[in-house]
Amino acid sequence: MWYVVQPGDSLYLIARRFGISVEELKQANQLTSNVIYVGQRLYIPGTNQAITYVVQPGDSLYLIARKFNTLIESIMVLNNLPNTNLVVGQRLRIPLYTEVVVNVARANIRSGPGTNYEIITQMVKNARLPALAHWQNWYKVRLFDGTEGWISSGIVTLNVYGGDKPIVRILGFYTLEEGPTLPSSYNSFVNNTELLSEVGLFMFRIDENNPTQIEKFGEFTDKEVNTLVSIAHRNNIKIMPVVHNLLYKGGTTTGKNVVKQLVSTPENRRVFAQNLVRLIEKYDFDGVNIDIEDVYIEDSARLSALYTEIGNVLDRKGYFFSASVPSRVSDAPFNPFSDPFNYDAIGKAVDEFVVMLYNEHGWPGSPPGPPVSIGWMERVLNYTITKMPKEKVIAAVSVFGFDFNLTTGKNTYVTYPMAMDLARRYNKQITFDEKTQTPMFAYEDEQGNKHEVWFENRQSILAKIRLAWRLGISGIALWRLGMEDPAIWTMLDRDVVVRKV
Questions:
Q1: What is the model's pTM?
Q2: Over the Cα atoms of the chain, what is R_g?
Q3: Which member of 260, 322, 345, 499 has the greatest number of CB atoms within 10 A?
């Protein structure tokens, strides 16, 4: 859980309150000294499960709520308290997350707690908003862009969560149609807005001919983008363009050369950052996700400088900065694909570090196996969280899989529906591999070639969410919407708490 430092707090008192050592608290927050300040957010390791507090002499619900950065009403709801009276020694479950859910067709969010305050935005039915405070008949809530507003308690339902389920953010990546077997993400997005915290539109690319510029990736109109932004915002979803250096006609070499030119001078880096601001403001995005993947190792330091420049520019404007970064497991050289990415430098520059886990298997010449095993995920994340605060980290996992032809050594991309079609076609039973926490099956095709199919489903994604929760990172990202097991959404609704913003 996260704790907000109160007047009179010290690391010693906070550590004692939560039953951990000062050193554990410092390591979890990358603190180099014992100095803390009022209002600072500290991650409390080992507290992602339900917390029980024993009432002390002099305690009140007000003091306990303030101590744990929650609402009086939340404590009362979670503990079924009929009134605010407490007894010394009484055990209370502490809320870890409180939200309100809009229960009318359209709800006004105002700048203050009353109808005389201006309307700053509107939400639609089933929109979920983190609740920060309660005053008379109004809840203070946090919005998609990080700002705060107020909503009447008469048009929302209060939900309080104590840690019985994982509480995570869900980032969904959105693409246009990629052919008859790879549909657009649109239906998956609009049908599951209450279960998404953020959406990244994989619809923009660094211009090959002038890398300080940004071009559209695919065929779409400005009106279509505006529609997606409107849907996201009225459902309290943060929405960003994904700006990448992928899928040029010249392949990965072109992608590397584009980055080489982009990062080559401070002026190029500055102009690119300013063009990101123009892109954000053109469509009313909330920030940007940078998905740079193909980079020459000699450009590593200049690439880090690019992230720093973007971070500084977006921070001054109040925009969110997210970056999707290939997986690393150590500081030592490990993989030419991921070695150019300095986790420490990038982690300092961004608000959100999306570590892309789906390169364990499936690359050309890869042996058969899951795109993301639970062991690989843990290995990468254990390295990542030594480089930045856990609250910045999102684990990007696949919802797709691969059909490995063991005879030819080739592999083919498969969505969940494609995997199901193959299993039915060859009358094969799907098994769940306990070691990797991934579904798979094997078959022999008409030519006598032996295959293994490894993919993702509701059960494997839940396992990854539970690991993310246990490790204390913010959540997971799904690449990409529209390819997933439809039962994932039922699972998220039933077994997970999706934290907005």
A1: 0.93
A2: 24
A3: 322
Please report which residue ranges of 265-354 form alpha helices under DSSP H. 266-283, 300-317, 343-349
Q: How far apart are CA 8 and CA 34, in angstroms?
A: 14
Comparing CA positions, the residue from 468, 300, 316 lying closest to residue 390 is 468
64: Cα separation from own chain's centroid: 30
> How many C-beta atoms lie closer than 10 Å to residue 334's C-beta?
13
The yes-or-no verdict on residue 103 having pLDDT over 90 is: yes
Instruction: Tell me which amino acid residue 97 is.
Output: Y
Which ranges in 19-83 belong to alpha helices (H)? 22-28, 61-67, 72-79
Q: Which residues pair with 394 in a beta bridge?
A: 354, 475
Is the pLDDT confidence value at 313 over 80? yes
pLDDT in tens, 317-353: 999 999 999 999 999 998 999 999 999 999 999 999 9
**377 vs 465: CA distance, rounded Å:** 11
Contact 438, 456 (CB under 8 A): yes
With 0-12 / 13-18 / 19 or more C-beta atoms within 10 angstroms meaning exposed / middle / buried, residue 165 is: middle
pLDDT computed for residue 452 by the predictor:
98
Report d(CA 34, CA 92) in Å as an integer: 30
pLDDT in tens, 384-411: 999 998 999 999 999 999 999 999 999 9
Enumerate residues 6+ apart whose C-beta is below 8 A from 194.
101, 126, 127, 128, 235, 493, 498
Dist. CA 479–CA 460, nearest whole Å: 14
Inter-residue contact 117 to 111 (CB < 8 Å): yes
Outline where 191-291 has alpha helix (H): 222-234, 251-263, 266-283
Cβ pair 231, 189 in contact under 8 A: yes
What is the pLDDT confidence band of residue 49, given thresholds at 50, 70 and 90?
Answer: low
Q: 138-142 and 148-152: which strand pairing?
A: antiparallel
Q: What is the mean pLDDT of the chain?
A: 95
